[in-house]
Amino acid sequence: MHVGSRRAVLNPVSGDGDHAASVERLLSARGFAVSRTEGPGDALELGRAAGEAGAAEVAVAGGDGTVNEVVRGLARADHLDEVTLSVVPVGTANLLAGTIGVGDRRQGVEVADTGEVRTIDVGFAGAEPFLVSCIAGLPAEASLAASSDLKGRFGTLAFLVTGAQEAIEFDGLDISLEVVGEDGPVTWSGSATCLLVGNARKFVARGGQADMEDGLLDVAIVEQMPTGNLVAEAVGHRLLATDTEGVTHVRARALSVDGHGEPVRFSRDGEVAEHEQLDIRVRERTLDLRVGPSYDPDPR
Ligand SMILES: Nc1ncnc2c1ncn2[C@@H]1O[C@H](COP(=O)(O)OP(=O)(O)OP(=O)(O)O)[C@@H](O)[C@H]1O
C-alpha cells in the first residue's frame, strides 16, 4: 500500500470528546493520515478531498453524523464504489458501528486496519447517500428535538425521552407513496405517524440490524393513530410486530414519497432536509466496508 492511501477523518467533539489524542495516535500507528474536523461540514469536505485524491481507505472516527458527512463527501467525489470505509465509534449513538459489529474505539481501530471487507448496499435519498436509515415523521422530529445536551446526558435514550413528548403534539404526515417492492408495486396514501426506510436497520418485528447486502430497503409505514404515545413507545422500543395493525411493511428497491405540495422533513442518518417530493432507492453492493468479527451478513 502506498503512503497516503490511508486517510482518517477524526471529529474531536463527537460523543464525550475525550478520544481525539488517543485515537489519532492509534490510527497513525496503523498508517492512517489523520485530519481533524474543526466544525460542521468539515467531514464532508475531508471526505470529498479523500475521494478526489483517490484514497484507497478512509477511516471515520466519529459518530453517525460524521460518518454521514464523510460518505456524502465521497459520493460527491464519485469515489463511493472505489474506497474501503471503516468506522471508529466515538460518537453518542454509533448506530452504524453497532450494526456492523464494531463495539468500541479500540476494536474500531483494529477493524480499520485488518477487519473483513464486505460490500454493502447504499441508500440514496435524491442524490444524497445514507447507510443506516432515512426517516420522516415522528422519530425524525424526535431526534431533531433531542438537544445535544440531552443527547450528552442520556445518550440514545434521549430519543425515547423526547419521542414520548413529541408524540402528543405530532399531526401526522399527509403523504402518498409508490413503492417498488420486492414482490411488485405497492401504493400507500394517507396520514402517517412516520415513514421508516432502513438500509442497515429494520423497524418491524424484533428490529435491529437489517441485511445490508440484499439490494433491498426495509420500509415501514406507520399509520397515524389517535394515541400517539403508544406509537412513540412502540417505535422507541423497536417492538413493531410484523402484524401490528396500522403498520405496512415492505421490502423495497425504491420508493417515491409525495408530500402533496407540503414539505416533509426527512432525517438521513441524522442529517435533516425537507422535500415536497423525494425518490429513495438502494444501490446494491456499492461500498466496501470493514466489519467487526461479530458482523452477521444475514440477520434474521
Ligand atoms: N471540531 C468541531 N467542533 C464542533 N462541531 C463539530 C466539529 N467537527 C464536527 N462537528 C459537528 O459535530 C456533530 C456531531 O458529530 P457526530 O455525529 O460524530 O457525534 P455524536 O452526535 O456524538 O454521535 P452520534 O451521531 O453517533 O449520536 C456533527 O454534526 C458535526 O458537523
Automatic annotation (TrEMBL):
<dbReference type="InterPro" id="IPR017438">
    <property type="entry name" value="ATP-NAD_kinase_N"/>
</dbReference>
<dbReference type="InterPro" id="IPR045540">
    <property type="entry name" value="YegS/DAGK_C"/>
</dbReference>
<keyword id="KW-0418">Kinase</keyword>
<protein>
    <submittedName>
        <fullName>Diacylglycerol kinase family lipid kinase</fullName>
    </submittedName>
</protein>
<keyword id="KW-0547">Nucleotide-binding</keyword>
<dbReference type="Pfam" id="PF00781">
    <property type="entry name" value="DAGK_cat"/>
</dbReference>
<keyword id="KW-0808">Transferase</keyword>
<feature type="domain" description="DAGKc">
    <location>
        <begin position="1"/>
        <end position="129"/>
    </location>
</feature>
<dbReference type="GO" id="GO:0016301">
    <property type="term" value="F:kinase activity"/>
</dbReference>
<dbReference type="InterPro" id="IPR001206">
    <property type="entry name" value="Diacylglycerol_kinase_cat_dom"/>
</dbReference>
<keyword id="KW-0067">ATP-binding</keyword>
<dbReference type="InterPro" id="IPR016064">
    <property type="entry name" value="NAD/diacylglycerol_kinase_sf"/>
</dbReference>
<dbReference type="Pfam" id="PF19279">
    <property type="entry name" value="YegS_C"/>
</dbReference>
<dbReference type="InterPro" id="IPR050187">
    <property type="entry name" value="Lipid_Phosphate_FormReg"/>
</dbReference>
